[in-house]
Design goal:
The protein has eleven helices and 15 strands. With about 350 residues, it is of the alpha/beta class. About 40% of the residues are buried. Bound molecules: ligand PBG. InterPro entries: HemC, Porphobilin_deaminase_cofac_BS, Porphobilin_deaminase_N, Porphobilinogen_deaminase_C, Porphobilinogen_deaminase_C_sf.
């Protein structure tokens, strides 16, 4: 049978370009790489395109920009209903075959909603710096949060950042700001309404704006979001050649850290308004360390857990930290926040 197929394909005109990876014809067509359309998302898509092209000679990657409901909605994301507002349309394109692979920030992939049926995260790219940074409007006389006068207004839409900021500076006012990183920066400068803005250093760097990071918040000052700084590649599991290709870009250490953090998030059963932070690292002696925190809205109350385990036990570690947090009151904190 295989003989016949080979003979048949030999006489068929083959579409060009044909990229071959380890003897497998990857695609006679182009590899369509789906991504959100923001400058940060497009920078990620270009990075992934270059990484894929570096693996397979002649691979033709077409970036397909997809507008998601999360991008279109200008209001409070929690009101959009359900999680994954930045994924729905991209998931659909992947499942229906309009695209072959999707690029996501892992942080935007809900931890407690199953992936679209028949799809897998085939690669976690090496994690970037997970720290959040503070940006001051151009011309501001301040460059450190400590110096901002009481009552200053801080721009962020992350409940996790708001809670941790107010915990140490209850005098500050936090106001939601939506939009892409670049539009948020432009608004910060133009409106002069905010004393400062907090966002992810990795996001700034991806759009070439790292020089705007005036203050880098330490991990102790601002525990990062679960999955921060990780770009992941999402494919159909039946597309074996693409799964295999994407796997070449997978960083096993990042995968283990992401697994621990996301299992914790999953086990905590939070909602869109839950200020949850989590950070997994590997200690110098090779142990997994997982720190988890759950805050009340203003950060006045919080639960904290830090546990260690061996690297082969990432899911168990995630579940254990979640259980420890629950024992320390995380459930009541989460349930006490309106959503
Ligand atoms: N929700 C938007 C989003 N998703 C991922 C990042 C940053 C990059 C990353 O952590 O991968 C950002 C921007 C931000 O939080 O400032």
């Amino acid at each position: 049978m295989a003989e016949i197929e080979r003979a048949t394909s030999a006489v068929m005109p083959s579409p060009a370009p044909v990229a071959v990876y380890r003897g497998r014809v990857l695609s006679g067509r182009r590899l369509r790489l789906g991504s959100r359309t923001s400058p940060m998302a497009m920078a990620q898509a270009h990075l992934v395109r270059d990484l894929l092209a570096g693996q397979v000679d002649g691979l033709d990657v077409e970036i397909v920009g997809i507008q998601t409901s999360g991008d279109a909605w200008r209001g409070d994301l929690a009101q959009l209903g359900g999680k994954g507002a930045f994924l729905k349309e991209i998931d659909k394109a992947l499942v229906t075959g309009q695209i072959d692979m999707a690029v996501h920030c892992l942080k935007d992939v809900p931890g407690d909603v199953p992936l679209a049926p028949g799809t897998v995260i085939a690669a976690y790219l090496p994690r970037e710096d997970v720290r959040d940074v503070v940006v001051f409007p151009t011309g501001s006389k301040y460059s450190h949060l400590d110096d901002l006068p009481p009552g200053s207004k801080i721009a962020t839409s992350a409940v996790r950042r708001k809670a941790q900021l107010l915990r140490v500076r209850p005098d500050l006012h936090v106001d939601r700001i939506r939009g892409n990183v670049d539009t948020r920066l432009a608004r910060l400068d133009a409106e002069q309404r905010f004393g400062a803005m907090i966002l992810a250093g990795a996001g700034l760097r991806r759009i070439g704006m790292e020089h705007r990071a005036d203050q880098v918040l330490s991990l102790e000052e601002m525990c990062p979001a679960v999955g921060a700084g990780i770009i992941c590649l999402h494919v159909r599991e039946t597309d074996e050649a693409l799964v295999e290709l994407a796997r070449l870009l997978d960083d096993p250490v990042t995968r283990v850290h992401a697994t621990a953090e996301r299992t914790m998030l999953h086990s905590l059963r939070g909602h869109c308004n839950s200020p949850i932070a989590g950070h997994c690292t590997t200690t110098p002696d090779g142990q997994l360390s997982l720190l988890g925190m759950v805050f009340s809205r203003e950060g006045g109350t919080f639960a904290y857990a830090h546990e260690w385990d061996t690297p082969d036990r990432a899911p168990e570690l995630g579940a254990f930290v979640a259980a420890t947090l629950a024992r320390k009151g995380a459930r009541a904190i989460i349930d006490g926040i309106p959503h």
